[in-house]
């Protein structure tokens, strides 16, 4: 089943790696990218993805704020939001903010496969 996916991460290498895994290996469907939290929120609203991967540490607004903004927007009530960070202490807070899953960086293929 094809899914529309959005990756929000300020690290281009992470976006490219994740996009390659999702489109190339897992064949999940089209992947859009945003390099800042605000662009991610805007792109999510315009594209209405089925799945959102969101980094927590970004230069403009945090992934925590991105998740809060999206969860306060009714069309995103049931969207799968996967928060990502190498800093494990964010896990509880981001899940309480509304993320469905916390994915630890560096992630591996098996961890991403398990999400689909």
Polypeptide structure, described:
- The structure is a single chain.
- This protein has 116 residues and is α/β, with parallel strands linked by helices.
- The chain has a single domain (5-113), classed as Rossmann fold, CATH 3.40.50.
- Helices cover 40% and strands 20% of the residues.
- It has helices at 12-25, 37-47, 63-71, 91-97, 109-113, and strands at 5-8, 31-34, 51-55, 80-85, 101-104.
- Strands 2-1-3-4-5 form a five-stranded parallel β-sheet, sandwiched between helices.
- Strand 1, helix 1 (12-25) and strand 2 form a beta-alpha-beta unit.
- Helix 2 runs parallel beside helix 3 (63-71).
- The model has no long low-confidence stretch (mean pLDDT 93).
Defining traits:
116 residues; alpha/beta; Rossmann fold; 5-stranded parallel beta sheet
Write the layout of secondary structure elements.
Blueprint: E1 5-8, H1 12-25, E2 31-34, H2 37-47, E3 51-55, H3 63-71, E4 80-85, H4 91-97, E5 101-104, H5 109-113
Provide a count of the helices.
5
Low-confidence stretches: none
Q: Main sheet?
A: 5 strands, parallel
Averaged pLDDT, please? 93
At the fold tier of CATH, the topology name is Rossmann fold
- Assigned CATH architecture: 3-Layer(aba) Sandwich
Rg from alpha-carbon coordinates:
13 Å
CATH superfamily: Response regulator
